[in-house]
Amino acid sequence: MLGSMLENVRKSCPLVHNITNYVTVNDCANIILACGASPIMADDEAEAAEITSICGGLNINIGTLNSHTIPSMFIAGKKANELGHPVLLDPVGAGASKLRTETAWKLLEEVRFTCIRGNISEIKTLASGSGTTKGVDADAADKVTEENLDKVAAFVKEFAKKTGAVIAVTGAIDIVADGEKAYCIRNGHPMMSSITGTGCQLSAMTTAFITANPEHPLEAVAAAVCTMGYAGELAHERVTDKDGNSSYRNYIIDAVYNMTPDMLMKGAKYEVR
Amino acid sequence: MLGSMLENVRKSCPLVHNITNYVTVNDCANIILACGASPIMADDEAEAAEITSICGGLNINIGTLNSHTIPSMFIAGKKANELGHPVLLDPVGAGASKLRTETAWKLLEEVRFTCIRGNISEIKTLASGSGTTKGVDADAADKVTEENLDKVAAFVKEFAKKTGAVIAVTGAIDIVADGEKAYCIRNGHPMMSSITGTGCQLSAMTTAFITANPEHPLEAVAAAVCTMGYAGELAHERVTDKDGNSSYRNYIIDAVYNMTPDMLMKGAKYEVR
Amino acid sequence: MLGSMLENVRKSCPLVHNITNYVTVNDCANIILACGASPIMADDEAEAAEITSICGGLNINIGTLNSHTIPSMFIAGKKANELGHPVLLDPVGAGASKLRTETAWKLLEEVRFTCIRGNISEIKTLASGSGTTKGVDADAADKVTEENLDKVAAFVKEFAKKTGAVIAVTGAIDIVADGEKAYCIRNGHPMMSSITGTGCQLSAMTTAFITANPEHPLEAVAAAVCTMGYAGELAHERVTDKDGNSSYRNYIIDAVYNMTPDMLMKGAKYEVR
Lengths: 273, 273, 273
Hints:
Shape of chain A: globular
Structural class of chain A: alpha/beta
Radius of gyration of chain A: 17 Å
Largest sheet of chain A: 9 strands, mixed
Number of helices of chain A: 11
Distance between the termini of chain A: 17 Å
CATH architecture of chain A: 3-Layer(aba) Sandwich
Number of strands of chain A: 9
Order of helices and strands of chain A: HEHEHEHEHEHHEEEHHHHE
Largest interface: A-C, 35 and 35 residues
Oligomer: homotrimer
């Protein structure tokens, strides 16, 4: 099943509209290309709706939100809803400032999301207004472990039910859930956290997956999360003792480029709870 | 002839002012350095004219245009015209939104360009208001092939005559033409289209070439296009079965860095029609 | 001593707020992670002070300053001063436009900096309003050589005394000084100047060092400068005849990732004057 999700991206080559941050935007564009889709970035109010219209899906990432791009997020999000296009929210740093938290909350109110992807602290902030985000990284206190996995999965399902979105909480263990089912995913490598924007890249790629698989959002998101994590594992096998986070970043995108549906099916490590 | 165009870049080290998009800006800066020139990025109205004045040439790329950078494009373009500096336009996504199409048209009216570089759909949009841009990639229906090459070359020459600019239409076959002569260039590799911003990078590098060779704009543009395409070929020879688009991106810029006039003369594949 | 500066970054993992340019922002984020700290980028007025408050240090880089980010620089700078957080200024291109020069001067008036890092032309512009910046690179006329080293070191000490900041003038020979002591550092490799943003990266990493070592700003800056230069040397040993500036960029960040306090102590080349 997960393999066919990737296959559909490569077959349909969806065009993905990204309103995203300028820190990781180049990596987001390259990973969208690596998985077989095509990116366009456009964040001015004057063209946001029009660009959304010619695309198949929309990725909203608040990583460097500002007074000029925030209105474009709402315009594009509503247009995508109107057209029935999949929309993803990456609430980068929600909890770290009022502007981020409140913008994310308002987006949740006014736009229907197909998927919301963040770390556990960001998702907790969205769900409850608590969470203890430390900058753009998850707080240690919020960490998902084998011990609290069932409890967190239940929380994620609940939030999925409430929002109608597939929720992807990523970290050492990833949880991807709709209101009924939760994929607990154990792909990935700890070194991925030493690269800026692996989360943003995953969100961009996930948007391509949900756009190419409109009938199966849960499996599409799970497939994207497994693809990223397994790419991180394969890429890590190439890391020599002179390599560091910069080369590793390239190797991960390379591994996505070379991922086949068959490889993904064999490499994906998950159970459904 | 093409070799000396590159040689002149390395000898004169021109400073190039870029008003460009934030997706590929880092690669644009690095490829300008790779070919021997020096980049500066500045897009605020308050300094656009002044930065243009201390530079030798200007690269205007509308890839993530917005209400604050558009006025700077006009200010810098007019200042460059006033000073007799070469100016290049990369009409990224012209045809994909009114904002892009109309900004590009207005730039053509108010600024005299030395070179306009785009894919065939973007150039058709500029020339005729038709074209069928799909996001930032050329549409299949517009594709340049051996069969329609003479017809497209005639169209490109006509548009060059009308605008007074050297026109570079890049794709599987590249056409670089002024009103009289068209270089049909067959360098490059299909994998280049899996990297974000090879077009933007080429535009940035081309600006360095026309700045260093003010007396020979047609040959300067042809040399830049051959340099990029041949670098794409050389870089592809390094690609291992673990490498993908991210490593390939680095290898192309590396190949430009290592390109000599002699290599370029031997590797350039073109005929003049 | 310098080794422990790096060790303290790795131990305390400081969160660094960056208001920086979009050209090199991704490399800045990755090098901050490479040295063991954590980056956050946020430049909207509505969140600048709040993000500064949750961070340990602030990096202000004027590389693509604009009318919306300039106010955020002042707001964040003043908040950091109020909280006693270390603040670094990278006056990219000061001298190249009135906007840059005057913004840098005004920042110096209204914000107390722990460190100011630039090339010799930028620092001369800050100190005296003269300097002959050519774009974002130092002018040849300003170059630091063995002959003028004592004279330049005296000038740098003087400026450090005047501003109360540690001044880092980087180039072929680096000078890091407070009012009393000047480290003259001879790490680095000439090929580093063919990469965009090694200066920006150093500023970002230096902010992490001064944040992790609040009691020893001079040694912290000297350690960051040695780390960058020595990483440039180690990275250059990996450069093959096919590699160019793009791969070299990755290798430098990789080398920072792999740098240990012990390696740094052995590799640092400096004398104190």
